[in-house]
Each structure stands twice: as C-alpha cells, then as structure tokens.
C-alpha cells in the first residue's frame, strides 16, 4: 500500500507540473521559444498554421525587397501568408504607438532603423527577442529586443574623370590635403561619421573633431539625399564624395558611371532591424518571421534583394562592406544630439 506521505508528494508534484504547463501555455511566445530552442523552422511553421497562418509585418522596404523577400518567405513556408504594411519609418512607428494606446494591436513585427527601434523600446512596445539565430551576430548588431537584418556604410568615392589614377584618396585623412579644396561634397546630416571616428577609430573626440575641421577647411559642398549625392558624383559636380553609401556604387559602375569607391574603411550603421511587438496578435507568426529573417537562409534572401546582410557569415551580392568598419550601435543614439551639434559647428551648417 502506498503511504499517505508518498501520495501527497506525488499529488504535489502533479499539481506543480500542471501549473507550470498552464503558465507556459499562457507565456509569451519568446519564452516558449527559449524553453525549446531546438524547434526547427518547419516545426514552428506548423504551429503558425494552427495559429492562423498569417503574420503582419510593419516595415519600410524597397521595391526590390518587396518583390524578393516576401514571396521567398511564403514559398519557403507554404500556407503562411505575410501581410506587409508599408510606409515611412516614422509613419509606421506612429501607427504602432497609436494601436498600443487604442488597445488594439494589429502589428506582429516591426522592422526599421535604430532611431525608430529606439522609439519602440522607449515606448515599451517590443517583446524580448531570444532566438538561437541571434547567437551569430556581434554585440553591436543586436539587443534583447531586436537584431539587425541589414547594414549600410558611409565611405569615400571619387569621379575617375576628375581624379587621375594614382592620385585617389586612400583614407579620410587624405582629404585634409589642400589639393582637395573645393573638390569635396557630402550629405550635411551625416554626423554618424564623426561618431564612428570618435568612438571607434580614434576612441578620442578631439582627434575626430580635428580631422573633420581640416576636411571642412577644404570648403565642402553639401547636398540632401544620398541617391542624389551619388548622381552628382557621376555628373562630376565635385571630384570626391566623403559621405556616400557604399551600396550606391556597384549598380552605377556596372552601367559605366565614371566613379569608384574607397573600400578600405568606412563607418557602418544598422540599416534595418527586426523586432516582435509585445502584444502581437500572432506571436508565433512573428517568431517565425524573425527567426527566418535572421537565419543564414533568410539573410541570403536579403542579399538577393540587394541588401547588405547583417549576418557576419552571409556576403552581399556586391563588395559593399569596407575592409575596416567603424560600426555604430544603439548606445551611440543617446549621444547623437551632441555629435550632431559638433558636426554642424565644424561645417557651419544651419
């Protein structure tokens, strides 16, 4: 005969197991995923189908990304549909904030640049994002609520009709040479360069400020918009650009544009990051999107869409990652107003 104490212990254990199972069932999806990290994407997709087979993604995507990434996901996970809501990053974050305040969240996933991800974090709109795919990413490309999907880089470029072979700049320091006077142009809002040099290359504000003051002495001409800046370089508006995006060079060079990039160094930043909305109506769908987007498989699709994958093991289609990069992270956002003020003072931007 079983003793009463043994029965009590058994009942106690059973009740505890039932309570734990109930709590786990009600827990956010990220907690369940952390508890079962070995679950494959295919297994997760089956659960997503039972959830309704849908995920709503709020993201500013290029036309090419819309044409490549969304169909690739739906082909990979047949039976799961992506409802993509497009808009500018500020429009999308405003919409999510409005949904949260109204008590009716429609978004499952938010993807945007760090400036807007930071707003979502501030508003406590994001769920913890603990997925096995994030392990491959360096610290500056992830946090406990987001992981980068793509990156972009500020570099030097020049017009080959205006700069003779052998006389090209080989570093940002070269642009302090008086021979570049009235020959340099850039985008006036790109204070990220100053942060990258101050925090990463020199690890010293004064040295970075001194560098850009010397570049400013060469009477830099500024334009708004990086696509326009690249086109002005192609047209020979000025010989050198010092805040061009690296990914703007390959497609123009292929078409015969007389421009070349300096790929030895550049300042990098997160172009886009994926996050899961805290009160997502379809948390499993959100988890599937996030895990796939961050996997090597998903990142190869990002590359096919013309993006520069954030995953360190996935190369972009073109050579757009500088050999040495001074990568900015979310912690740098806090100091952006200070560096922006210094940048404007250096270049006398109003």
CATH fold name of the largest domain, please? D-Maltodextrin-Binding Protein, domain 2
Q: What is the fourth-level CATH superfamily of the largest domain?
A: Periplasmic binding protein-like II
Which structural class should the secondary elements be placed in? alpha/beta
> Which stretches are poorly predicted, pLDDT < 50 over at least 5 residues?
1-36
CATH class of the largest domain: Alpha Beta
* Order of secondary-structure elements: HHHEHEHEHEEHHEHEHEEHHEH
Radius of gyration: 24 Å
Beta-strand percent range: 15-25%
Spatial shape? elongated
Number of structurally distinct domains: 2
Give a short account of the largest sheet. Answer: 10 strands, mixed
Features:
D-Maltodextrin-Binding Protein, domain 2; 10 strands; 17% strand; 13 helices; 43% helix; ten-stranded mixed sheet
Layout of strands and helices, then pairs:
Elements: H1 4-26, H2 29-35, H3 41-51, E1 54-59, H4 63-76, E2 81-85, H5 89-102, E3 109-112, H6 114-122, E4 147-159, E5 184-187, H7 192-201, H8 205-216, E6 221-223, H9 226-235, E7 240-245, H10 249-254, E8 259-261, E9 265-276, H11 283-294, H12 296-304, E10 324-327, H13 336-347
Parallel strand pairs: 1-2, 1-3, 5-6, 5-7, 9-10
Antiparallel strand pairs: 3-9, 4-7, 4-8, 4-9
Describe this structure in words.
It is elongated, with a radius of gyration of 24 Å. It has two domains: 26-150 and 270-304, Periplasmic binding protein-like II (D-Maltodextrin-Binding Protein, domain 2, 3-Layer(aba) Sandwich), CATH 3.40.190; 153-269 and 328-347, Periplasmic binding protein-like II (D-Maltodextrin-Binding Protein, domain 2, 3-Layer(aba) Sandwich), CATH 3.40.190. The chain is an alpha/beta fold and 350 residues long. Strand 1 (54-59), helix 4 (63-76) and strand 2 (81-85) form a beta-alpha-beta unit. It has helices spanning 4-26, 29-35, 41-51, 63-76, 89-102, 114-122, 192-201, 205-216, 226-235, 249-254, 283-294, 296-304, 336-347, and strands spanning 54-59, 81-85, 109-112, 147-159, 184-187, 221-223, 240-245, 259-261, 265-276, 324-327. Helix 3 (41-51) packs antiparallel against helix 11 and helix 5 packs parallel to helix 6. The longest helix is centred in the first third of the chain and has 23 residues, at 4-26. The protein has 13 helices and ten strands. The model is unreliable at 1-36 (pLDDT under 50). Strands 1, 2, 3, 4, 5, 6, 7, 8, 9 and 10 form a ten-stranded mixed beta sheet that branches.
